[in-house]
Amino acid sequence: MALFLLLSIGMKRIAIIDDEPSARLVLKGLVEDAGHKVVAEGENGVDAVNACRQTSPDLVIMDVRMPVKDGIEAAMEITRFFPAPIMLLTASDDEETIMRAVAAGAMAYLVKPVRAEDLVPAIEFACARFSELKELREENIGLKTALDSRKVVEKAKGLLMEKERLTENEAFARLRKISMDKRKSMAEIAEVIILALDNEKR
Asked: Is 95 found in the same domain as 147?
């Protein structure tokens, strides 16, 4: 089971953050036994943020209750500047803690003490879920960019139809030809045309 999961997600560079040295030591052993590499350790949320800035881990495994800055506060800060999958460790699985963990951007959580049979699939789940969400975000950005480009082309086409008394097909063909001649996207050409024609109207 562990070997299959390791092959499916590959070796991960992991940061371990827990204010209990003994818990960190046990967790480090479990992570390394699973074939992953521990690239940073820390004992509070500030250490977690610094570890992400300095080592860019593939996964952060972090306790919820810690001094200085707790795991949930650190998770919120990390997800703002360094998107990475975060697994939170909690001594209890009460609903409020779980909801806070989800709101902070945690991809998974485990109840302490952590067992090897729970850790390996949790790492798999956290990394897979993070990848899926990342792909969805990129897809949404791509769709928004395509929609914005279409709006710009439609506006430029309308201005050409009005100024040059062209049909819709003729205006589109004009934009496409200029785009091909200049080796630029139709959206880039459309923006130039909109700027030029808008300036003429002023």
From this structure: no
